[in-house]
């Protein structure tokens, strides 16, 4: 039996492709025991489907690859995606920050709808079926695992992030074996680790409008201390630029002014916390780093130590050691080079009938629904090509 098409990967991109493409003799191969495992984790289980606003504003949220995927985003925009779900009975809601969720805040409803659409189009699903080989045959068909033959193959296997969900990067060596150019994968949307991290005991403390800079790239936004790394939206969105030995600069309070401690009988930790409206525990760590005793009277603090605390609030500098890895990364930077595909249809330039969609490609978006939007947009673009 020769299948008309086989989808490798039962995640967001693959299922969205299936929702628009008639199966004929069509088969979805899912590596794990059940499809959509990573989709169920998205948005902390609430499924941040996409982002509000104009699709034109999305381009800058994909790093250097944003302009290359413009055709796909415009063809299958956030508005058309929202209409797809709403027309099929899934009510959506937009939060104040622009993130779009199902009104139920339940990712399982999104997955159930996509699976229902795939079944309606006639697709069969085979779970616990990892792909261990992929070959292009002389007759133009493709051979998977030595016995599954298809006229068209849609690779929607994901990247390397959250490998327990099946998105473990195992397809990339197979695609490289076909001669496709692979950009070395690295974690994206991931906490950043630094040398001599000073905030291990302050996990959970956050800043809403910190300025974060990694080498030559900067963002203003949320910053979060974890027990061993920096996180929060600003850090996550810049993590694609991380390189060991790079510089991380953080301005917690960019306009912090030197406080006047003369005559103040409060303890130094309390004085600093009150003066800058920061958590006391954070104030005490800053004082230790400035060589001061948080328990001493504020009035007795040397001006040099007050200046040091103020300087740290304005600009804290660290040497980057790396990231917390694929296990905690929300996305993957790297994958199949975009030069290998037509970015309108996502068909391979080398192998007609081979399509690559979603996170398997070298594109990663900011936090806020941008990665799922690309998964859906690329799935739609490929589906329109095979109709």
Share of helix, binned: 25-40%
Counting DSSP E segments of at least 2 residues, the number of strands comes to 18
Which CATH C-level class of the largest domain is it? Alpha Beta
CATH topology of the largest domain: FAD/NAD(P)-binding domain
Estimated share of beta-strand residues: 15-25%
SSE run: EHEHEHHEEHEEEEHEEEEEHEHHHEEEH
Indicate the radius of gyration in whole angstroms: 24 Å
Protein name: Aminoacetone oxidase family FAD-binding enzyme
Keywords: FAD, Flavoprotein
Cofactor: FAD
Pfam families: HI0933_like, HI0933_like_1st
Overview of the structural elements:
It is built from 11 helices and 18 strands. The chain is α+β, with helices and mostly antiparallel strands and 387 residues long. It folds into 2 domains: 2-186 and 333-386, FAD/NAD(P)-binding domain, CATH 3.50.50; 192-323, Elongation Factor Tu (Ef-tu), domain 3. Strands 1, 2, 6, 7, 8, 9 and 18 form a 7-stranded mixed sheet that branches.
Give a summary of the structure in a few sentences.
The chain has helices at about 10-20, 35-40, 70-75, 80-85, 105-120, 170-175, 235-240, 270-275, 280-290, 305-315, 370-385, and strands spanning about 1-10, 25-30, 50, 90-95, 100, 125, 135, 140-145, 150-155, 180-190, 190-195, 205-215, 215-225, 230, 245-250, 315-325, 330-335, 355. The chain is α+β, with helices and mostly antiparallel strands.
Q: How is the secondary structure organized here?
A:
Elements: E1 2-8, H1 12-20, E2 26-29, H2 37-41, E3 50-51, H3 70-75, H4 78-87, E4 92-94, E5 99-102, H5 107-120, E6 124-126, E7 134-136, E8 142-144, E9 148-155, H6 171-177, E10 182-188, E11 192-194, E12 206-214, E13 217-225, E14 230-231, H7 233-238, E15 247-251, H8 268-276, H9 280-289, H10 303-314, E16 316-323, E17 331-336, E18 354-356, H11 370-386
Parallel strand pairs: 1-2, 1-9, 2-6, 9-18
Antiparallel strand pairs: 3-5, 4-5, 7-8, 8-9, 10-17, 11-16, 12-13, 12-15, 13-14, 15-16
Helix pairs in contact: 1-5, 1-11, 8-9, 9-10
Cofactor: FAD
Keywords: FAD, Flavoprotein
Domain RsdA/BaiN/AoA(So)-like Rossmann fold-like: 4-384
């Amino acid at each position: 039996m020769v299948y008309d098409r086989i989808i490798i990967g039962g995640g967001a991109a693959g299922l969205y492709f299936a929702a628009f493409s008639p199966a004929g003799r069509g088969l979805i191969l899912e590596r794990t025991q059940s499809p959509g495992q990573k989709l169920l984790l998205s948005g902390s289980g609430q499924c941040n489907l996409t982002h509000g606003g104009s699709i034109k504003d999305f381009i800058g949220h994909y790093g250097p690859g944003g302009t290359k995927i413009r055709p796909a985003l415009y063809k299958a925009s956030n508005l058309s995606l929202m209409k797809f779900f709403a027309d099929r009975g899934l009510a959506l809601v937009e939060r104040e920050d622009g993130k779009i969720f199902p009104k139920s805040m339940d990712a399982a409803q999104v997955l159930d709808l996509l699976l229902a659409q795939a079944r309606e189009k006639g697709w069969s699903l085979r779970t616990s079926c990892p792909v261990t080989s992929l070959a292009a045959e002389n007759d133009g068909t493709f051979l998977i695992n030595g016995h599954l033959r298809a006229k068209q193959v849609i690779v929607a296997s994901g990247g390397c992030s959250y490998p327990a969900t099946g998105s473990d990067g195992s397809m990339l060596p197979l695609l490289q074996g076909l001669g496709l150019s692979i950009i070395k994968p690295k974690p994206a949307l991931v906490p950043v680790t630094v040398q001599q991290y000073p905030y291990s005991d302050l996990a959970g403390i956050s800043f809403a409008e910190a300025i974060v800079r990694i080498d030559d790239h900067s963002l203003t936004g949320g910053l979060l201390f974890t027990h061993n790394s920096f996180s929060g939206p600003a850090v996550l969105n810049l993590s694609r630029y991380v390189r060991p030995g790079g510089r991380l600069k953080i301005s917690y309070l960019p306009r912090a002014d030197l406080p006047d401690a003369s005559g103040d009988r409060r303890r130094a930790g309390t004085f600093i916390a009150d003066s800058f409206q920061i958590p006391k525990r954070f104030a005490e760590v800053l004082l230790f780093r400035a060589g001061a005793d948080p328990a001493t009277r504020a009035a007795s603090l040397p001006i040099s130590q007050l200046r040091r605390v103020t300087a740290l609030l304005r600009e804290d500098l660290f040497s980057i050691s790396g990231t917390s890895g694929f296990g905690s990364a929300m996305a993957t930077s790297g994958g199949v080079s975009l030069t290998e595909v037509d970015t309108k249809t996502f068909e391979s330039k080398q192998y007609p009938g081979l399509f690559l969609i979603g996170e398997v490609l070298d594109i990663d978006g900011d936090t806020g629904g941008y990665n799922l939007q690309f998964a859906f947009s690329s799935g739609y673009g490929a589906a329109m090509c095979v109709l």
